[in-house]
Each structure stands twice: as structure tokens, then as C-alpha cells.
Amino acid sequence: MSLVAREISYAYIPGQYALSGVSLTLEPGEVLFLLGANGSGKTTLLECLCGVRFPQAGEILLDGAPLSSLPPRERAKRIAYVPQFPEAAFAYTVEEMVLFGRAPHVGPFGRPTKKDQEKVEKALELVGIYPLHKRAVNTLSGGERRLVLIARGLAQEAPYLLLDEPDAHLDPANQHRILSVVRDLAKQGLGVVATTHNPNSALLYGQRVLLLRSGKTLAQGEPFVALSPEILAEAYGITFQILGDGSGPRAFIPRVERKA
Amino acid sequence: MRRAGLVLALCLLPLPIVFGSLLLGRMDLGAREVWASLLGGAVPETVRALVLRVRLPRLLAAALVGANLAVSGAAFQGIFRNPLVESRILGVSAGAGLGAALAMVLRSGPLGIQGLSFIGGLLAAGLAMLLGTAFGGGILVLVLSGVLVNSFFSSLVSLVKYFADPYVQLPGITFWLMGGLSTVRWADFWPLAAASAIGLGGLLLLRWRLNLLTLSEAEAQALGLPVKRLRFLTVALGTLLTAASVSVSGVVGWIGLIVPHAARALVGPDHLFLIPAAAGLGAAVLLIFDDIARTLLPTEIPLDILTGLIGVPVFFLLFMRQIRKGGGWR
Amino acid sequence: MRKLIFGILAVFFVLGAAQVTVVDQAGREVLVPPHPARIASAFGVATPYLYCFVGGEKIVAARYLGLPDHPLSREVMSRIDPAYAEKALGGEVTAEELLAKGAELVFAGLKHRDLAKVLGEIGIPTILIGPETFAAVREATLIIGQALGEEERAQKLVAFYQEILDGVAAATREIPPEARPKVLVLGTSALRVASGEMYQSRMVELAGGISVTQGLPGSWQNVNIEQVLIWNPDVIIIVPYSPVEPADLLRDQIWAAVEAVKTGRVYKMPQLLFAWDTPIPESILGILWMAALFHPGRVPLDFEETIRAFYQEFYRCTLSAAELSELLGR
Fold it and tell me: How far is B114 from chain C (nearest CA, A)?
């Protein structure tokens, strides 16, 4: 029971590979963070994992079976994709938006039933935003909107959750709120992949990390083991320093020269 | 469920309007005569013919055309993720207009005009879809293809008008293009009813999924939706409704744009409620416009003129209210 | 009338001078070459007048409205002017076209003022006519006759008109208004009617009928069947260039309620050379034809003989008995 990518490569333009030979394994119950500079291939990898893009080389296996062999609806029942921003053209309510997550379970000509409604309520409660359920999504704050999207992903009842930069564009409090929710979901048995620009998110909230550079794997494994100032410098091209002592959590920050 | 009740009310709204409209017309008929005609009572043959063969098919056609245009407008607004869209975006009206113009220049009878305009509408939209899918099938490309097809077919219509006999054919073409239901008989109604059944039925079945098309393409795909197929099916159904309607009523604008907005303001953007609400509201609105068109003056007022003159200020008011409230659409 | 007197006086004053001054129906004073040999008509309505006065060899270009679609008219026209097809002008006539054909005198309509201006600048005189009433037809006849140096012939034609009008008036003098038939004139579709201000309605009145559309303003108007039922005409006249045939109305279940359809008095006006319902010399035959239909047995003039005489005298054309029968739909 795992989501496995084996030596996958993807090129947007023939000859120019956004991903080359990347492998990863995601088990249920853990959060895997994808790190890397802009353009390193994080989003491409995420999209391949959720079946929206098809790698030209390598394979992706979902619980042992090739992802590409699954019809889209079946795939949507197993893997949920959570984007950064809700992009509906109209002002749906939180409830309506999260209900969309039931799409894989509703027939092609059907409509959601009471059971679907109940799952939506559960998802909202799990994420902690049930009181907002009648509000229009576009009236919510950034953090709340992100939670709505996560709730929608949960409503899909998929064992694997893929999140695109869940901590981006949020203030520290909201970042903590979102990432805590993500960590708790993993504790409840979901397998989660999240991309992020912040190595510290991986340190604080993740169990595994995959660091990309120019489409290739630079480092992989447990955050505190795989990440180091040197490897981060190679990935991002700037120098990092470690903060914190050996007893508590550590953090990486860029070394900034203060002009006197 | 207040919203469900409202939707039901809107769906039932056309019924009393149809009955009321049966009483309206250039000829003065009383309620008693109308009831008697409907129920087979003793009325002069002229009265019965007027009620059953002139007014009734026309009213039912008006209701269907209104519902069709409103529903297809709502569906297109969803597919193209833009509330400023109506079904003419793919050139259906321009194609139907060309078909009708050609039919009139070739001196076909009413059946020929209806048939050719229907085919013309389908052809135009089909061409737009073909062009759009050939270049990727994304929304922007579809819109561009629609604009191209629309312009092209409109120019062809102008060409036909230029060569048409200015005394015989041109006035007919112009009048047809402005929209009217004065010649609707039962024979025109049944094909419209059949097309409406397919189109409305299909869109009603698909209506919850239409919501998903208003999300970004990546999200919709990730939710397991066959996006291109669904989009194509919806466009096909919407085009069927529009082409069938335009072939009967001529080009009637604004219904496909305003009614979905009004419905959205009343019941929200969820297509589960929006589609049936738009159907009921569209039917009611066009019925009222048609009543005015055929009763106010001795001459028929073209529908497009009425919907434009009355529809535009109404739309503007709605638009202003929406801006202030900020709800219904972004 | 005043223009007419002024025109004739002008002729007297410039008697002996090289050129003739004609006052056209736009009130313009136009200097015309005496006995012009290259004449053109940019106005469909003007063309018949020309053929009444001069032979086809003097006409270099003309608009032949409605002629190509009418086999009998084509046949007869080819006897009057075998080369007419090459002279046909189409669409919007330009000054260049007329110059290229070598026209030295052009007849055009009131809407061609701009064309007249351009022609004036290149030295081609243009006479504008725009008959809307029978009096104006009479006036146009005299003006054109004068311009072509055929005043005598013009007087003869006007006298012919008068004879017929007098005959009809005499035959219908005693008929009170209530007994005169109510008449509806239909245009290019069954629900397109001639308004009260149009030439067709005036013809109806001169023929001793009453036009049901008296109150209707403007030109052709679109109505619905209920309005026709309210008018309930006794006679329906369909214009010659309409695709509608009397049979279409006579077998229609809803038109069956109209008085004219009940009694079978639905007729299509004949056309020879040009449509008899347009303001041209032949329209006098249209008036006679209608009078015979409105008041069967009362109109004393020998119908067939009058028609034959008209075409013989004024178009210099002999109609065979078969052609006459075909013309009158027998």
C-alpha cells in the first residue's frame, strides 16, 4: 500500500527534461516534503504523481498497479490534489466547494446524496472550519481558503493527498495552522506529499523529504539526515546556516551579510 | 430548504403565465372562451382554432425557447468560466442566420427555413469546436474560434443580404433575424420540443458536474473528470438547444446572458439549482416578451428589439446591484 | 399640380431653344438634351415608363426589377427589346457604370440624389421620380414624356389612365362604403401586409375597395394572424412577386376563419413585364383588375381587350390569346 515513483522523467519540450530519473516512495501515515528551487521540477513531479501529467520514462505505481492504467475516476478516489488557490469562476460557498470533492464518488449523471453531505461535514470538522460552511469562499482569508481546499481533498476520501505549497502566501500563524492540520492528517493514516519553498517546514512537520535540483534528486530521506547547509547551498545557490542547539529543533536560515 | 423551494417556484412560474397569456392577444377573448376551448366546450370554431392552433403552440414555443436560451447561456457561462458569455459565443446565431437567409434566397418554405437555420447553427458551432480542439481545446482557443466563426458567418449573412432582392428577400431576412414567433404552428413546435427534451434533459442530468467545469482544468482533471469530453458534450447540448430555438424564433439576444445572471442572483451559482431556475425564469421572461410583441401594437414587434430595449436596462440594474453586493459571481 | 404647370410653362418659354428644362419629382430643374438617344434607368420603377415612350434601341442600361423571375415577362420583354439582358444593371448603380454605357440621360429615384449629383458633375443630366400616389404616377408619366420629347404620347397614356379610372368610378359610384369590400394586400410573406400609406392601398381604394390597413403607418408591416382575423378582409390580394400562392392560404386551417378565404376570394395580382402593384404605368391595369374582382359584373370595360390594347399601344407589343390567358391565370 504505497505510492511509488520509479525513475520518472518528464519533458515539456522534447529534449528538455524537467524531471530526470526521480524515484520516491510514499507510505500511508507520513508527510513527504518536496523541496527545491523555482523550476527544479517540484510542481511537475506533483502533477505526475496525481496523474495529471504522464512521464515519458519510468513508471508510477499506486498500490502496486500502474497509475496510468487507472481510469480517472478511480484514480481520483485514491489520490487527491490540493492546489494553492481556489479558482472557481463563481462565488461558491465552502460547503458547495468541498462537496465538489465528492465528484469521483458521484456518478457521471448524478448528484451528491445525503451521505456525500455527511462526508463533507466530517471533512470540514476534521480541518476545523465547519462554522464557515455557509460562507462564500471568496469572502474568506487566505488561510481559511487553503483549509477549504484541503477539506475538499479530504472529501474525496483518498488515502493519498498531494498538496501544492500549502504554506505559501500565509502569515506564520496560518502557516502553522495549515501544516499542523497536514501533520495530523498523516497521523490519521493518510499519505501526504507537499511541495514547499521552506526547508524548515519539512523539518518541523515532515517525516521525509526529497530535494530536487534541475529535475534530478539531490537528497532524499529523513529531514534532519538528508538536509544540511551544504546540500541546501547546492540546491538553492545561497549559503545557509543552522540555528538551534543539539537539544531542540533546528532551523536553516540563509546567511545574510548585514551592511554596517 | 428555502433554495429548493425557490427553484421549484421558478420552474412552475411559466405555467400560470402560459394560462394568462392564452387570454392575451390582438383578438379579445374572455377566460370562459379560453377554458371552453381547452376543455372541448362549446365555442365557435374560430375561437377554438385561435386558442388551440394559434396561441397555444406559440406560447409553448416561447416558453421552450426562453428556457433553452437561458439554460444554454448558463451552461456556456460555466464552461467558459465567464459570466459575460452566452450561447452566441460559438457562432450559433450567426450560423443559423446564414441558414435562414440562404433558405429565403432560395425561396424555401417555412420548413426549409427552419431546417436550414438549424443546420447552419450546428455547422457554425461545430466549426468553432473543431477549430478550437485542433488548437488544443483550451478555453481561450475555443473562445477565439467562436469569435472567428461568428464574424465569418456574420459577414456571409451580410453578403447574402447584399445580393438579396431588396424588395422581396431582404426584408424577410431582416425581419427573421430580428426574432419573432408570429408564424409558429404545431408543425414547428414538435421538432423544437424534441430538441429541447434532449438538450434540457441532458443538461439537467449533467448539471451538478457542470460546477466542476468552472474550476481550473487541473483541478477538474484531478477530481477524475473527463474534462474535454464533458466540455464537448455540454457544448453540443447547449448548441442543440440554441440552434433549435433560433431556427424557430430567429435571433433573440440577451435572454441567454441576463436570465442566468438573474437566476444566479436568486439561487446562487450551484448549477444544481441554477439550471432548473434558469429554465423556469427564461421561459417566464420570454413568454412575457412575446405577449408584448404580439399584443401591444397591430404590428409584430421583433423580439430582439424588446429584449434589447428592456433587457439592457434590467441587466444594468442587476449588474449594479451585484457589484454592490459582491455575491453571485466574482 | 403646381410642378406640372410650371413644367409645361417652362417648355413653352424655351420653345425653340436647344435644350428642354424639366422639373422632376424632386423639384429639381433639369436641362435635358432634345430627343435623347442614349437613355438609362437606375431606378426599377422608372424603367417601364421609358419603354412606353421609346424603343429598346434608345435604352442603354436599366434596372429590370422582378423581370428575371417571371417567365412570361421575360418572353414578352425579349420581343420588345431583344437585347435587354445585356443592359441590365444590378445592385447599387454607380455613375461609372452609367458613363461606361454611354448614357446621356438618366432616370433615377428620389433616393438617388447623391448619384444625381455625381452624374451632374460629369455632365449627365438625371431626372428623379418618386411616385407614391396615382396622381404622382400621372405626373411622372408627363415628366418623363416631356424629357424624352414625347409629350403627345404622354398625354395619350394619361388619357388612358383616366378612361379606366372614370369607368371604374362610374361603375362603383353607387356602392355605399359598407358595401365595398374590405381588402388586405399581402406582400412577400403571408403575414406581411401593405400599410395604409402604400401605393397598393391607394390602388385598392381607386378600385372601389376599402383597405383594411388604413390606420397602419409606414411601409410593409409584419402582423400576426390574430390581427388579420380582426381585420377580417373580404378580399385578399397577393402581390405578384410574393412566394405565397392563393392555394397556400385557401387550404390553411387557421386562415380558413378569414372571410376572404371562406369565400375563396384570394387572388394573386398578375405581372407583365413589371409588377402591377408598383407605381408604374401598368398599375392602371392592376386597378382595373382589382375593380373587376371587387365588383364582379359591374365594371363595364372589356378586361382582356383593355389589357391587349394597353400593351399594343404603349409597349408596341402584341400579346397572343394564350399569353393573355396565362397572364390572367386562366
Answer: 15
| A204 pLDDT higher than 80 | yes
Per-window interface: C 244-273 vs B, CB < 8 A: 253-254, 256-257
Q: Which three cell numbers stand for residue B202?
A: 441532458
Q: Distance between CA C326 and CA C329 in Å, rounded?
A: 5
B272 touches chain A (CB under 8 A): yes
Of C223, C254, C257, the CB nearest to B299: C223
Asked whether the predicted pLDDT for residue C23 surpasses 60, the reply is yes
Within 8 A of C222 by CB-CB distance, chain B residues are 175, 180, 182, 299-300
Residue B316 C-alpha, separation from nearest chain A C-alpha, in angstroms: 19
Chain segment C261-304, per-residue pLDDT in tens:
999 999 999 988 899 999 999 999 999 999 999 998 888 667 88
Q: Specify the pairing of strand A79-82 against strand A216-221.
A: unpaired
φ, ψ (nearest 5 deg) of residue C34 = -70, 140
Contacting residues of B for A77, CB less than 8 Å apart? 224
H helix runs in C104-217, sequence order: 113-121, 134-147, 151-172, 199-206
Q: Name all contacts of C138-144 with Cβ < 8 Å and 24+ positions apart.
A: C139/C3, C139/C4, C139/C25, C140/C25, C140/C49, C140/C279, C141/C49, C141/C52, C141/C281, C142/C4, C142/C7, C143/C7, C143/C22, C143/C23, C143/C24, C143/C25, C144/C46, C144/C49, C144/C50, C144/C53, C144/C107
- The grid cell for B71 is 439554460
Judge whether C188 is closer than 8 Å to chain B, CB to CB. Answer: yes
Model ipTM? 0.85
pLDDT band at B106 (very low <50, low <70, confident <90, very high): confident
Residue C291 neighbours by CB distance under 10 Å: 27
- The span from the CA of B311 to the CA of B324, in Å, is 20
The residues near B229 (Cβ < 8 Å, ≥ 6 apart) are none
Rounded-to-integer distance, Cα A218 and Cα A34, Å: 11
Inter-chain residue contact C220 with B169, CB threshold 8 Å = no
Amino acid at B268: G
pLDDT tens column, C145-170: 999 988 999 999 999 999 999 989 98
Kindly list the residues from chain B whose CB atom is less than 8 angstroms away from the CB atom of residue A100: 211-212, 215, 223
Distance (Å, rounded) from C-alpha B30 to C-alpha B33? 5
* Least Cα separation, residue B211 to chain A (angstroms): 8
pTM of the model: 0.86
Fold category of C19-157 in CATH: Rossmann fold (3.40.50)
B48 contacts chain C (CB < 8 A): no
| pLDDT at residue A88 in the model | 78
Which residue in B has a C-alpha nearest to residue C45's C-alpha?
A: B167
Q: Which residues of A touch B83 (CB under 8 A)?
A: 89-90
- CB count, 10 Å around CB of C174? 8
3-class DSSP assignment, residue A3: strand
Rounded Cα distance, C195 and C187, in Å: 10
- Is A92 an interface residue toward B (CB < 8 Å)? yes
Q: Cβ atoms within 10 A of the Cβ of B44, count?
A: 11
The pLDDT of residue C222 is: 92
Find the helix or strand (DSSP H, E) in which C185 lies.
strand C182-186
Domain segments of chain C as ranges: 19-157, 175-299
User: Does C205 have pLDDT greater than 70?
Assistant: yes
From chain B, the residues in CB contact with C253 under 8 A are 49, 53
Distance CA(A185)–CA(B122), nearest Å, equals 50
CB contact under 8 A, C230 and B167: no
Q: Distance between CA B203 and CA C178 in Å, rounded?
A: 59
Q: Is B328 on the interface with A (CB under 8 A)?
A: yes
Domain C175-299 fold is Rossmann fold (3.40.50)
| CB-based contact C191 B54, cutoff 8 Å | no
Length of chain C as a residue count: 330
